[in-house]
Write a structure and sequence with these properties.
CATH class of the largest domain: Alpha Beta
Number of domains: 2
Structural class: alpha+beta
Strand content: 15-25%
Helix content: 40-55%
Amino acid sequence: MALEQQRKHKYYRIHRYLDWVAGVGKPRFYQWIQYCSRVGFLAAVGFLALIQFCDPQGQQLPDWWTALLGWIHQRRFAFAVILLLAQAVLQVLIWTANWLKSYDVKKLENILDNVVASHFTNQDKSDHIYRATLFKVRSWPCCGKWLGIVARSGTRYSRKRTVFSINPNTKRYNTGIAGECWRRDGQTVILEIPVPKGNSLAQGESDDYKKSGYLDGIELGLMNVKATVFMATGIRVGGKVWGILVLDSTDPKQQPKSKPQERRSTEALEFAAVALGQLAS
């Protein structure tokens, strides 16, 4: 039974690298496309100008230079077509990226700040951490799916490098509270995991925290914050789970103490998820 409960992030390092490439807001991959497009445009313009003067006939040039210019001149139409087609393809990719992948991260962060302020009352920021994180479902051929951070509240822990594995077919390949929430089709999850004072875990405590938090060992080892209170719910866009909203805190007093409190927290969290879904769509 213990083996069945052990979660595994099969492609952790690959997912973390791909998530870095995807970036936050406009993915870095598409920023590279924009850069290549500008370079390609300048190359196309420069080449079209060059071929007007690359006919070696009547020019006093070294033999090797004459041969090179002659070769280019004979194929000038093919070169021009290739460069122009490459430029057109890159431009289409840019338009597609801007349409599909661009998020207003500042607005998302403002919403998350408000969510933290409304859900975590009587905050003791001198001793505890209160966060809201928006994860988006991402995927790559042959590497499966994962949840990567799009936005996070506040200014602390702003690197946004956390990734969790998700898999629709194998339970153990869904990691973290976010991954478990996704596995349950975005159903709200509210959970408390006891953490010793000082945020440090002995071996036995580490195993318990890993199991209770649905974590792979490598994920636990790289965690900067070991929260005790978790609330997670799905973000739906077009009827599908687009991402997961996770609230976490190291303050155990933030855990709902009764069923009515838990119900109010669930309703408020799901209302915030609707607002984020509208902004993400």
